[in-house]
Prior knowledge:
Blueprint: E1 3-9, E2 13-20, E3 27-30, H1 34-47, E4 50-57, H2 64-82, H3 95-128, E5 131-133, H4 136-146, E6 151-152, H5 154-168, E7 174-177, E8 180-186, H6 199-206, E9 217-218, E10 221-226, E11 229-234, H7 237-243, H8 245-248, E12 253-261, E13 264-271
Parallel strand pairs: 3-4, 6-12
Antiparallel strand pairs: 1-2, 2-4, 5-12, 7-8, 8-11, 9-13, 10-11, 12-13
Helix pairs in contact: 1-3, 2-3, 4-7
Amino acid sequence: MRKSEISRKTSETDIILSIDLDGKGSSQIDTGIGFLDHMLTLFAKHGRFDLNIKCKGDTNVDFHHTVEDTGICLGKAVKDALGSKKGIMEKNRPKGENHYMKHARKWLACLLAGVLALAVLAGCSALMGGTVQKDTEQAKALMKEVDPSLTYNTDLEDAASRLADWLVEDSTQLTTQSGLLTRKVPMTTGSGAMLDTNVYDFIDHSTSFLFLPRGVVIGLAMNNEWDFTGYLYAPPLSEAGSALRSYAAGCTRMGAVFIEYGGETYVVAMFA
C-alpha cells in the first residue's frame, strides 16, 4: 500500500499528516484555515486519496506559515508514498491502464501545483502586506524610552493589537510616506470622519467592532483634510521613543504592538 506519515514541528507550525494514495477519498483536515481545509478536502476527494492533516500554526500572526508548511509536508508525504514509483508507467501494462495512469499522474501534478501556488501566493501576500507582532518585552523597553514613569498595561496592548489588525487587513490601503507607515482610510459623507479632530473619533467613525476603550490616547497621527480620503500614520520603531512622548503626556499606562511591513518595524501604541 502506498502510504506515508509525516510529522514536522517548527517555531511556527506543528503538523501531523498522513496520506494513502490508494484510498477512497476520505479526509480529516484541520489546519485552522477554513479555505485551506476546503481545498485539501477537495484534493483528497477528487484524487481518491485518504488524507489526514492536523496543524497548529501561528495563524494569529498570519496564514502563510501554515499554508507553506502544510504544502511542504503534503509534497514530502506524496513523494514518500510513491516510493520508487515503479510500475506507474510500466511498459507491459495494458494500453488502457497506461493511459489511465498517465492521466492520473497529470492530475496529481496539477493538484500539487495548485497547493504549491496557494502557498506561494500566501507568502507573497505576507510580504506585500503588514504583519502584526506582539512582543511585550520589546514594548516595555520602548515604554522606558517614551516615559520611564509609565506602567505597562496588557489591556491596552490587546486594544492596540485589534487596531493594528485593522490597519493591515487591506494591503491595498497600506504604504509608507516620509518614513511613516501610512493607512489610507476612505471616508463617506455620512460617517462623520471628515469632521473629526482626534484620532479616536476618526477611527471610531471609520470602522466597527474594534471596541477600543473610551478615553484612550492613540499614538497615531491623522490627516482627514483630503476629499473622501483620510490617512493614519504609525511611527517607525527607530523613532518611536521620541515620536510618542507627546501622546503619553498626562498618562500613566501604555500598551503597544508592532507591525512588520516592507522590512521595517512600526509601532501602534495606546496610552491612558
